[in-house]
Here is the input.
Amino acid sequence: MKHRTFFWFIFPSALAMILFIALPVVSVFIQSLHVEHEQVLRTVENCGPFGCTEETVIDREATRELREAQPLGRFAGLSNYTDRNHLALAELSSMWERSDSFADFTRRAMTLPFWRAMAFTLTFTFVVTPLVLSLGLAIALGVNSLPRMFRGPTIFVSLLPMIVTPLIGSLVLYWMVDSRGVLGAFLQTITNDPNLSLRASPTLTWIMLIVYGVWSSAPFAFIVFYAGLQTVPEEPLEAAMIDGANRWQRIRYVVIPHLMPLAVFITLMQLMDNFRVFEPIVGFQAQASATSLSYNIFNYLRGDSAQFGAAATTSMLTIFGVIVLLTPVLIRTWRDFNRKGH
Amino acid sequence: MAVKQHRSPLLVTVSTALVLLWVVIASFPFLWTLWGSFKVQADFFSLADWRNALRGTFTMAQTGSTFTSQGYAGAWVQEEFWRAAMNTFVVVFCVVVISLTFGTLGGYALARSGFRYTFWLLMIALVFRAMPHITLVSGYLMPFFQWNIWGHLPTAIIVLVAINQPFTLWMLHSFFLNIPKDLDESAMVDGCTRFQAFRHVIVPVMWPGVITTGLFSFLLAYNDFAVTAMLLSQQNQTMVPKIASFLGSTQVEGNVMFAVAAVVSATAPLFVLILFFQRQIVSGLTAGAVKG
Here is the structure.
């Protein structure tokens, strides 16, 4: 295809991506170098019958004018990145000196918003992903041994948790595990603790969010693995049976190697999707015990006094994290592309 | 695995039990919420006994019948959920149509051009695909306020189209790769321009791939929370942010039931979608492209 024709075909799509993905990233970067204007203070002298006192008041008019004239705020360089709400290097080093054990240090570091969100985001990503892979494979193997007429309905039901709006899915679960909901009541009965509330304990909240993550993503792994199982070659399976391999050995040495490329694909998708975990925290109203990077950005942006600088800084750090996660994939795809010999 | 195998009855029982358990885990929350949406709050969130939700004790006491549509009436009429539903329809329809138009042209070009820059474009698209949507939203807000385009449906539509493009391009690109090159090239030998070849030869055979991609574009637009919650004004809200706003309002007796009814209403279209397009969704997921 000629360059010129290619250009016109790709133009609408590329324009949309440049205007609404590439430029916003630039805008995020610029915003991350600025902080909101401080309120303009003015000293006024109040003279009364008992003499004059000096008082400092906020000049609302001047503050508003200044904010309208320079909506970006004032230039702050990289200070946004190093402040307490983000990398917090100074705070971390002083905490390191003051704490007597690593556990103590972690406990202190969990009071820093960025690291708290990072801890949950990474835990969520790296716990949910392997669980999704193994549960998906287990379901796929199970469904594959069902009579054919039951497979369609099973797939139908399985698609629901995956396809449903994440916020809705998390609300549906949240209402059930609420202490007044059916699962909450059930848990209270089996633990014999009438005051048990999943929301009250940070650990239980994390577990609840992870359960949601697995529930909503396992169908994806299941469908992909199930499709892969349909194409497992027969000869190696038969050969393995003749050699006396039992069912488990056949799965371990024939089926799993065949599914490996699919597992890599699912892992990739899962890493990308779990890293941006956001809606469940809103749905489960879990912000007191667990926040994610995306949630922090959302939290900075909403309300009347949006902190664009802080939101932009967290966004830049999140994008950096995404690129770190994706680097192995990009290198791998680069090799594949070269091997194909374009 | 079409190989005939001797399976031990124990293994069959275990794997069937596992699948059965999964089916319950996957479907019970939806069935329970559907059932509960016809109860009053004192039943669905019962302090005394969860079985009230089954018996409808308080629903009986408060409304005189064991089922009530109070939640639905409250959500759709009193809280004007119908407005949000209409907004969702407009947004989703426009996003799907526009992103498929852009995506087919771009995906076709990427599939037919062998130059090195196509690889880089696809890689950039992959990075864009991985970016959390909320990070982009933080880039939009300030300029949109400045230009006074914040809060309108067209703004949200074009933003969702752009966010959708990386995925659409990948999926349609891999789909067009499967359509033989000879098809459009022979049309060009016969004197068609590239666009005519695309229009008359490729368009008639591309519909299966376009429908599959369209389903995922639909899901992305329908399920979005980050963009629509931050970029739409109160009266332009779509369903998902509207549901979130039900939760934010004070938990007055009965208000949670509005949210429950709204959640069930918003799930219904998705249910219908799976009912009719299960095969396409499955093939889309397994196309080895990118999940929506």
About this structure: The first strand of chain A starts at residue 34 and ends at 35. Chain A has a mean pLDDT of 88. DSSP finds 15 helices and four strands in chain A. Residues 37-75 of chain A form one domain.
